Amino acid sequence: MSNVCIKNINHEEVVSLAGQVEIMAGQVVSKTLAQNSAVSITLFAFAKGEEISSHDSNGDAMVTVLEGTGRFTVDGKDYLLHAGETLIMPAKKPHAVYAQETFKMMLVVVFPQ
Fold this sequence. Notes:
Layout: E1 28-35, E2 39-46, E3 51-55, E4 60-74, E5 77-82, E6 86-89, E7 95-98, E8 103-110
Antiparallel strand pairs: 1-2, 2-8, 3-7, 4-5, 4-6, 4-7, 4-8
InterPro entries: Cupin_2, RmlC-like_jellyroll, RmlC_Cupin_sf
Organism: Aminipila butyrica
Protein name: Cupin domain-containing protein
């Protein structure tokens, strides 16, 4: 059992989160930074036109757009987020993500304990 809680990113080094994932044509690229029963932290890079279809989660999901613009649909309502903006998608509510242009985001999901 490792004592490293945050992985796949350099420790004690100033980094750009957006620089940790690359846009790849026709893909949604993800990099998991932390995953356990309490929290999940993942970086995503979306090519234009890519999406994550509607689904729900047992935990509250907080997205922060790092670069570009993404469209988030939560319980049927659309939200357009730009770099630096954050949205909370409540647990158990269906949500989806669509890249109307290339964009990158960080997703933090906090699960009930």
